[in-house]
Design goal:
Two copies of one chain form a homodimer.
Chain A lengths: L10 E6 L4 E7 L2 E8 L11 H9 L8 E6 L14 E2 L19 E5 L3 E3 L4 E3 L2 H11 L5 E5 L4 E7 L2 E8 L1 H11 L12 H13 L4 H15 L3 H19 L1 H4 L4 E5 L1 H12 L6 E4 H20 L1
Helix pairs in contact in A: 2-9, 3-6, 4-6, 5-6, 6-8
């Protein structure tokens, strides 16, 4: 079916998280169109998934079935259909896809499983597909992949498998503190690299001080007019520093790849550089598409 | 004026925080009536303070002036009138009161100052009055006072002065994570003391793991059905453990007094007992009233 001349899309790639839905029409191995909406898994009941998807992809559909490959929270228990986790150590790409029931005959939807770890208990959905995408171009990679985001993941990767991983709620905590805590009065736009670097250094070297450094951001603003850009950078540096202190067993002496949104990855790269570490930065969308493409190819091979 | 036979209230005590307003009619050294509202400083513009107060205390007023003594965020820059901070080391009670302009001739309002610390930058408003209240009955106290709450304070007290203090955003972070983060799906009512104790122990001994232990609460619930009461206790224990790790220079080898709401103080007392420390627990309202009474007495002495 791949590359057939008259189709708009050979298949459709979907990244469906808690708060977002992104779809790409894929043709000849590359995206030819993209559509996004805010109808993430967190806002949808079980009957809402198919309409939410059709709203985005209907223009790309043909008379006959189009294969849709989706990753992310869409496969959680509260999602469209539960795609059981694979237990680490495991390859981040899987051919055990879950097919939700659909009403529209033009859709053939396949949801990728996430990964789970028994002890320490941890789960991921979506990031495994980005790791798989990175590994398609770097099959012999041995090292650690960090995926900064709302829930940042650190994954130890070896011989094509995710060996172990840990999740840090750094992005979500940053957002809650910056927007809803007392710190919101002190935090504004802009950036202050010196304040960021100082905060990373302080928290990574004395992680036990995290809990008190946070209120200092407010007090510094009240007493010493430290400014909203500095406060923002200090909050980010304090939380990323705490994450690096906790993830040290992952990154110490390892080859590090960062997969994430460019701005956030740059902060992580800067924080790691302060520890003398040079991380490779990979665009998150590229990795997602590469991972979904790898899954689609496995599916095609299985079907033909 | 004290103890005059026909007055309903000799004076009025007010605890006015960010999210609450509490007033007591005081007569012969004890409260004879109490009134509360949710019109905290955070919800009021500058013109709203006097009406909010009158709504509560009007039934207690006489023809002539009644003295009102207030502590808390009502004295902040965004409050009714800014009561400048005293710089530590300082006595927690002060006779430098701020008088906001009032329209009702029956009110004579006095706002207590907070405390500030230049480095590390820190501020408090309200807790100093509770410390002052404790010191009226324990003037020779030498040790550390912990005031658990939205923003928990640890204060080193010696020779009647607050020598230094630090603020931990533990209560606010607990509330944000329990109600608004991904952890809200796993946290419910109830308590699990064993889970609390284990979490305190883990975070206090390895504070760098705080950032990853939080998401584990979610993953444990997903993978191992750990239950909503256990999740609540683990979140509390993880955050209080992190606070104890950061406040260790305060409590190590010290006499400790806890001033706070009974349920929360009990969690702190339990966490400290796990470190082999026996804390004295003081009711927050009693301490507030004692501190406001001490301030009122100083005011009376200055006026007569």
């Amino acid at each position: 079916m791949s590359g057939s001349g008259t189709r708009y899309a050979d298949w459709i790639a979907v990244d469906w998280g808690t708060s977002h839905l992104r779809a790409w029409a894929m043709r000849d191995g590359a995206p030819t169109a993209e559509a996004t909406s805010d109808r993430g898994m967190g806002r949808l009941g079980s009957a809402d998934f198919e309409p939410a998807l059709l709203d985005l992809v209907e223009p790309w559909l043909e008379q006959d079935r189009t294969t849709v490959v989706a990753c992310g929270m869409v496969g959680s228990r509260q999602g469209w259909a539960e795609a059981p986790y694979a237990q680490v150590p495991a390859r981040p790409s899987s051919d055990r896809l879950t097919r939700p029931a659909t009403h529209d005959m033009r859709l053939s939807v396949h949801i990728l499983p996430g990964l789970k770890q028994d002890s320490p208990a941890d789960v991921m959905r979506g990031e495994e597909t980005q790791i798989a995408g990175y590994l398609t171009a770097n099959p012999d990679f041995d090292g650690v992949v960090c995926l900064p985001g709302t829930h940042t993941k650190w994954a130890q990767v070896s011989a094509g498998e995710v060996v172990s991983f840990r999740t840090f709620m750094t992005g979500e905590i940053f957002s809650l503190l910056a927007r809803q805590s007392v710190l919101r009065h002190s935090i504004g736009d802009g950036w202050d690299d010196a304040a960021f670097a100082e905060a990373v250094d302080q928290t990574i070297s004395r992680p036990e001080t995290l809990a008190t450094r946070l209120f200092s951001i407010r007090a510094e603003a009240l007493l010493h007019d430290s400014g909203p850009a500095s406060a923002r950078a200090r909050l980010s540096g304090t939380l990323i520093g705490a994450e690096l202190a906790g993830s040290r067993p992952y990154w110490l002496g390892q080859r590090i790849v960062l997969i994430g949104e460019a701005g956030l990855s740059a902060h992580y790269a800067r924080a790691l550089s302060l520890q003398g570490l040079d991380a490779q930065v990979i665009d998150a969308t590229d990795a997602t598409l590469a991972g979904l493409t790898a899954a689609w190819r496995m599916l095609e091979e299985a079907l033909t």
